[in-house]
Design a protein that fits this description.
The complex is a heterodimer of chains A (314) and B (319). With 314 residues, chain A is an all-alpha fold. Chain A has helices at residues 11-19, 27-37, 39-61, 93-128, 132-146, 149-168, 170-184, 187-201, 205-212, 217-228, 230-253, 265-272, 280-308.
Amino acid sequence: MAGSTLASPIASAGVAGAGGRRRHVSAGLEAWRRFRRHRLALMSTGILILMMLAVAVGPLVWQVPINDIDFSAQLSRPSWSHPFGTDDLGQDLLARMLYGGRISLAVGLAAMLVAVVVGTIVGAVAGISRGSVDAAMMWLTDLFLALPQLPVLLLVIYLFRDPLKRLVGPEFGVFILIVAVIAAFRWMPVARLVRAQFLSLREKEFVEAARALGATKLRLVVRHILPNSLGPVIVAGTVDVAVAILLESTLSFLGLGFPPDVPTWGRILFDAKDYLDIAPHWALFAGGAIFLAVLSINFIGDGLRDALDPRKVM
Amino acid sequence: MSRYLLRRLLIAVPSLLGISVVLFTVLALAPGDPFAELATNPNVPAEVGAALRREFGLDDPIALRYLRWLAAMLHGNWGFSFVSRIDVDTLILQRLPATLFVIGSSQVLALAIALPVGVYAATQPYSLFDQIANTLAFIGFSLPTFFTGLLLILVFSINLGWLPFVFRADIAATGWHWYWEEFRQSVMPVAVLGLAQGASWTRYVRSAVLDAIRLDHVTTARAKGLAERVVVIKHVVRNALIPVVTLVALSMPAVFGGAIVTEQIFRIPGIGSLLISSILANDTPVIMAVTFVFACLVILFNLIADFLYGWLDPRIAYR
């Protein structure tokens, strides 16, 4: 083999391990072993778990109300009474960040779940059926890929925000809307991935064997093909969480996401940008939180790629 | 080659139509009504409102309304801005150059970073340089553009006072001085967009080069005794660029998203900030037109990508 440079340094570990005789280890354990070698990914997992714990438990420990206006402590720097400082209304930033983090992370996870489910269904249907169904679904996928995401997202939010608010309340309405629109623009890569996996897997011998035993098409897909194509989907899903968090904070930053009384990280940054010169801590904490969350999710995605999909880089 | 390009051009037309259908459907499904104000205004009798609706064709079936809207767009009749009180196409033409300038120069910057760094990192995989470049790339595309923009303003405009943080379309200067001012005010927006794109493209380039460098023809080229530099540039990079072009074309919508945010931060008078301000002001004709212009730009860049495929790999053009 000419110049065999493996795509990732960890990929070689699995190959080398196969040489010696070893007792059987499950696929999950093998993946965990590979994941563990990616030190940055392991560290990121720790950071992300800490952040999730902080936003889940934090508001119970740090019981300062998020909308307690105190003009005597306007724009104050970090101190013992306000560890992250305060904003222009004297509201405690730590409390707001903890509360907003719940929403930012929840939006990321929910949008990823919807996008992965939709993408997997579309990709699976396109991959297993040949001919016109496949062509039509892929045309739709390509069409969505060619849409200018952010402008259309803004357009949809602009048009549908108020009716949905009236229907299910301001906070939950915006949550549903943002999750739906982010997912609507993120399912295409998953669909393409799943379809590509299906196209190669459905010609494999084990699928042939299952078909020869009389398995129905549904059983073939659910029991045999889908479980084997999940590795890259998990990786793509992880990266999607990061993209969704970024998109949500972008929308909030443009003033078109959550309302001002729901302090998501992007919203805090949006409010902070006019006070950059006198209260830089305000923007730095919010931006830093987004950055840290996105960076650790991206590293985890990289580690998972090494663990589950060792041939592929990127 | 020209037949290939013509074919790609013909394929672009249905996509453009598809996008316009999606946009129009979104607008038609939306619960809002441009004549809602008339209905609640007590000075306008109900019959007048109904007559107006009929006259503007709002009661027609949606397919007919779509065709009429499409015909109007094709005739260059893009509507009239409620807020700025001028034609939408004039407004967009005023704003487009600033957007194209910022996007164009940031893409050049991104490529100028991504190509050399990615290729060099891939020729020495897992070296110190590769690891540093990889970590920096991760940081680069994890940093949200709006945060980097604010950081740059904080450091270079507020603390150091070197660069202006408001982009001005009307610089009161001529000659060299004008170019200098234009350069100074473009540095930060272009850097924000270009570095973010460059970071993710570096990873694309690296992985594509890594895939191409272990192909057999590269070994053959080395065995012939070609210099390593020639092998890499002529035999590896050219092949590696094909997947890179695909990924770059696919990331174009994200680039325009980043451009909207950047224009908003640095107050660049481009079509991105026009979109935001018209959304905040409920200026529907402008919103529709700007979204459509963005869609056209995405399709245009996909066409450019197709052209590059044909140039990089002539076999594609003859298939």
